[in-house]
């Protein structure tokens, strides 16, 4: 029997008894008819359009982030060694204050620990393939 899983609009062939006794009573699936298959295709197209729109928005944000040059003042000792290190939270706060863009700290990747004054680059991953390099300049407070 051909059915459509309601959770993810997946179309599959399953055993008749499984569909009738488990999937249909629990409202996990419906019978795949011509009209329901057309509805599934429309929903998939709608979801795809939403994803494309979101990707375009994220591309614009990534372009803005790529142009940013952030300056983070930190306390430092002799030789430019920082008291502590720059964290992803510091980077996120500086991005928000300088550009108004809110980013989850888990999307920021610091390639190597930042423990000295200087210029660095951090990676911000907005979506699977949408990434931006943000330039950091660590200065004395």
Mean pLDDT: 94
Estimated structural class: alpha+beta
Strand content: 25-35%
Q: Regarding CATH, which class of the largest domain?
A: Alpha Beta
Number of alpha- plus pi-helical segments? 3
Query: What does the main sheet amount to?
Result: 4 strands, mixed
Q: Which second-level CATH architecture of the largest domain applies? A: Roll
- Could you tell me the CATH topology label of the largest domain: Ribosomal Protein L9, domain 2
Helix-strand topology string? EEHEHEEHEEEE
In CATH terms, the superfamily of the largest domain is: Ribosomal protein L9, C-terminal domain
Quickly list its features.
141 residues; alpha+beta; Ribosomal Protein L9, domain 1; Ribosomal Protein L9, domain 2; 2 domains; four-stranded mixed sheet; three-stranded antiparallel sheet
Concise structural overview:
Helix content is 38%, strand content 33%. It is an alpha+beta fold.
Describe the structure.
It is a single chain. The protein starts with a strand and ends with a strand. It is 38% helix and 33% strand. The protein has 2 domains: 2-55, Ribosomal protein L9, N-terminal domain (Ribosomal Protein L9, domain 1), CATH 3.40.5.10; 59-140, Ribosomal Protein L9, domain 2, CATH 3.10.430. The chain has a 4-stranded mixed β-sheet with strand order 4-9-8-6. It has a 3-stranded antiparallel β-sheet with strand order 2-1-3, covered by helices on one side. It has a two-stranded antiparallel sheet with strand order 5-7. With 141 residues, it is of the alpha+beta class.
């Amino acid at each position: 029997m051909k059915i459509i899983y309601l959770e993810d609009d997946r179309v599959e062939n399953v055993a008749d008894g499984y569909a009738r006794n488990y999937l249909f009573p629990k409202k996990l699936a419906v019978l795949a008819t011509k009209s329901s298959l057309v509805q599934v295709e429309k929903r998939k197209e709608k979801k795809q359009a939403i994803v494309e729109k979101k990707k375009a928005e994220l591309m614009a944000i990534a372009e803005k982030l790529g142009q940013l040059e952030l300056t983070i003042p930190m306390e430092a000792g002799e030789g430019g060694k920082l008291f502590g290190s720059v964290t992803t939270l510091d980077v996120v706060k500086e991005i928000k204050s300088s550009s108004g863009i809110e980013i989850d700290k888990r999307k920021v990747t610091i390639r190597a620990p930042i423990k000295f004054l200087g210029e660095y680059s951090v990676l911000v991953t907005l979506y699977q393939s949408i990434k931006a390099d943000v330039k950091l300049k660590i200065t004395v407070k």
